[in-house]
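Researcher: Next sequence.
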Amino acid sequence: MKRTGTGTGIRRATILAGFAVSAAFLALAAWRLDRTGVQQAFAHARWWPFVPLAIACYVAGHVLRGVRCRELVRQDAHLSTLTASNIVVVGYAVNNLLPARLGELARAGMLAERTGMPFTRALTVTFLERLLDGIVMVGLLIAAPLVVPVHGWVLQSARVAAPIFGVALALVVLCALAPYRVISLASRLAAPLPASTHDRLVGLVSQITQGVSPLRDARRLPSIVTLSVLVWLAEAGMFVFAMSCFHLPALYGRAVVVMAATNLGILLPSSPGFIGPFHWFCMQALAGFGVPEATSFSYAVLVHLTFYAPVTLWGVAAMGWYGIELGTVLAMQRAGRLLDPKSAGGLPVRVITPLVRASREPAPSRLLQSICEALLPDHDLPDRAAAVQRVCAFVAGQTAALPWYLRLAMTLGLSGFSMTVLITHARPFSSLPLARRRRIVAAWAWGRLAIARQLFRPLRSTALLAWYEDAAVSAATERSAEEPRPCAIIEAPHG
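Model: Next structure:
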């Protein structure tokens, strides 16, 4: 329990630090800002056709990312370009909505779900994509002085980032070219540890080596590297067209420098959507080319909205289409516990949701109670109301134990459900007859809308689990199974 509490404290401290960093950089960006100049910059901006063209370039970059993702997993699974692009965009959308870069986990989780590969391997593929992006950005900054003059701090940032990405690349190449030696080394280093821990670590390293295996394919490697470069050249187009909006010289070399410097800056932990660091680093990169502060701030705001709004809407739509639950992968990884191997015949067993009732379970809301009642089967029990109350309390306790972002998603989903029922039936859901409530819940739980099914899936599973584990329900079920059943006597035909 101490371990869990410490981990939770660290996560909260990281999130708070991210918001503090965002606030600090946003304050720096807006410090002594000429608001009149900002208003004039937006008033004289040319929105058409440059904003649509900027959005088109950014979307094209994500499509290229999807093609690259498809190439990276071609050995393990077949992905269409649309599905691969949606996987990439979901990760970016979650990063825009949730802190601590949870989008990387959501992206890996969706990739694992769509391809069937292990989560660790999918996470390795995601890390490889990010590594390729970082190497391309550093390379573009180092090569930029050959085309345009670059401010000193930008080059210094590239020189600091280059060794970090270089070491990461060297480790990845080692895992790709010598996988068996890496696995053997991991096995020797983990030899003093318990057998179960040793096996898990070796299995983890094995999945990592398989995740970087595309780098061993000499036929696919050139296309992967080319796609990585094209991704950022397409995204640089967004920065070019944004310059045209504010009557700035639309020089491609300048756009590449501003783009690369800004993306290196947002590697710092910050709030969702990189608010603050994005604006400040973008402003500083433009200042190196003599752009006034008011114009550079306006430019940073426009570019941020240009990439934030479309990818977030696209990602949310993809999550609704595929039925992806925000934070599910992270919650499963954190809640997973390894039991004592002796208790399972020597085999490790992973428990996702411990079935231990909390000592103090929160009282279920009227809405949650009415939903649980509609989800339960119509068993004839002597004291059915008491059993239903116990199930509702269990569901409320399990819901309260979820991470805050999952609780928030559940609350928003149930609020939307309640409002929809109120509009369509002119009565609150809890005041409807039980038969009607069951029809409504069935329509949501088994309907065509994936996000509605995902809302009721954990509620239905948890409620049914608690129902059939209840002592009164179990006793009634056993009695009904033992009762003799009437049977028809069939006479054999004569002759």
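Model: Residues 293-322 form the longest helix (30 residues). Residues 358-479 form one domain.
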